[in-house]
């Protein structure tokens, strides 16, 4: 028998539980960390590294929907300059209005949604360069 203290609605009870195979099977598994073998590719030349990094730096940052909902209001237009923290649009989800803010300074390249559109988590909303 195993003794446990259980609190229900603020009152503590001492209970005895029989131990059996079922309880043993409910124990948490043990996780053992084993580092992976070194599978990294061979070092590339600096020219190859620069070529790979350049497109990422030139690409626009895409603001995506953090949760499913409906676009209530769009506060910016394409070509408009925005600063980090500016409210780009308002997304209604679960009867709550959520301000979607600019993650960085830049210019609005493209608006992917219109007022009244339904969006899912991860859908692109606005591109900022």
How does this model look, in words?
The chain has two helices and ten strands. It has 129 residues and is mainly beta. The protein has a domain of 68 residues: RNA polymerase II/Efflux pump adaptor protein, barrel-sandwich hybrid domain (OB fold (Dihydrolipoamide Acetyltransferase, E2P), Beta Barrel), CATH 2.40.50. The protein has a four-stranded antiparallel beta sheet with strand order 3-10-8-5, with no helix packed on it. About 8% of the residues have low confidence.
Reported CATH architecture of the domain at 61-128: Beta Barrel
CATH C-level class of the domain at 61-128 is Mainly Beta
Indicate the mean pLDDT. Answer: 79
Principal-axes geometry comes out as: elongated
**Share of residues in helices:** 10-25%
The CATH homologous superfamily of the domain at 61-128 is called RNA polymerase II/Efflux pump adaptor protein, barrel-sandwich hybrid domain
Structural class by sheet pairing and helices = mainly beta
N-to-C CA distance = 66 Å
């Amino acid at each position: 028998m195993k003794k446990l203290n259980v609190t229900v609605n603020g009152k503590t009870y001492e209970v005895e539980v029989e131990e059996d195979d079922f309880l043993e099977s409910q124990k948490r598994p043990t996780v053992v960390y084993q580092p992976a073998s070194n599978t990294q590719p061979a070092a590339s030349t600096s020219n190859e590294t620069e070529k790979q990094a350049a497109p990422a730096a030139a690409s626009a940052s895409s603001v995506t929907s953090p949760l499913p909902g409906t676009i209530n209001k769009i506060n910016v237009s394409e070509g408009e300059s925005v600063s980090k923290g500016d409210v780009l649009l308002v997304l209604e989800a679960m009867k709550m209005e959520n301000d979607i803010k600019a993650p960085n300074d830049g210019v609005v390249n493209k608006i992917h949604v219109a007022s009244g559109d339904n969006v899912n988590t991860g859908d692109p909303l606005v591109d900022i360069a």
